[in-house]
Input
Amino acid sequence: MLEDGSDELIAYLVKEGLSLDNINFIPHTFSIDSLVNDEVDAMSVYLTHEIYFF
Output
């Protein structure tokens, strides 16, 4: 899950050799539940916020 405006994260994925054609981008729900419940493999988060939920 990526939020709008995550161009720097997309650029990072490409730089690391991932093909964007192989990634299913899902709109961000701003809830960690999707990650915790194995509905998504990764999500963008802010270190100042979501880390406390974990």
Notes: The radius of gyration is 12 Å.
